[in-house]
Amino acid sequence: MTAGSDSLLGEAVYKQLLDRIFTGRLPSGAPLSVPALAAELQVSRSPVRDSVQRLVADGLAVHTPHAGARVAHVDAAEIADVFAVRELLDGYAASAATVRATTAEVEKLVRLVEDQKERLAAPADALNEARWDLEFHTAVRDLAGNRALSEALHRLDAKAHLYNSGLWSDDAERRFAVAEHAAIVHAIEVGDAAAAERAAAAHVAALGVRMRRIQGTTAGTYSPSGC
């Protein structure tokens, strides 16, 4: 196997593990056994070991001596910090996306939201709801054309998805989130960068408040800027 194919395999394994974390298939505290994951993914141990090390470097996993690596735990205080930063960066990403997006790219965003609206008629599917939410936000961020921004938000999203709030099992939350996504896309579609920034920031802020309510944490736990 060439160095190039090794790199591609390693990236594929990392993305699979990251997807499992994002969707909750690997929840906080789950062991990241290299032999077990290698057998399950039908790959050698080397790319799995490298991927687990990347997760540790990203803050998504922790390594305990004599116990191996586990998916990291994120508490309410840390998730508050994550959402405060996301509020600023997602707002900036939506503003930049508005300026850079082509008509065809905007149409893709519109279709993404329309698909989300249609899925509201079906029962909640927490794992896929989280994946579709990530798909939407990734699409907006990619249009901003700023790799450093996309990577930073990707890591923050990973942290957010580690926090098991039950958010995506809630029908009301699904409706709220899709309505907020639609507001972001409408602002991008009409070319109002300032409105897109406000809509994206407001979405993250509101998401944090609703997450706090579902968790039943105290009112002072999460304080998004501007609220």
TrEMBL record:
Protein name stated in the entry:
GntR family transcriptional regulator
Question: What InterPro entries does the entry give?
Answer: GntR_C, TF_FadR/GntR_C, Tscrpt_reg_HTH_GntR, WH-like_DNA-bd_sf, WH_DNA-bd_sf
Q: Which residues form a coiled coil?
A: none
Work out whether the entry's keyword set contains Transcription regulation.
yes
- Keyword Glycosyltransferase applies: no
Q: Which Pfam families match?
A: FCD, GntR
Recall the GO molecular function terms of this protein's record: DNA binding; DNA-binding transcription factor activity
HTH gntR-type domain spans which residues? 7-74
- What keywords were assigned to this record? DNA-binding, Transcription, Transcription regulation
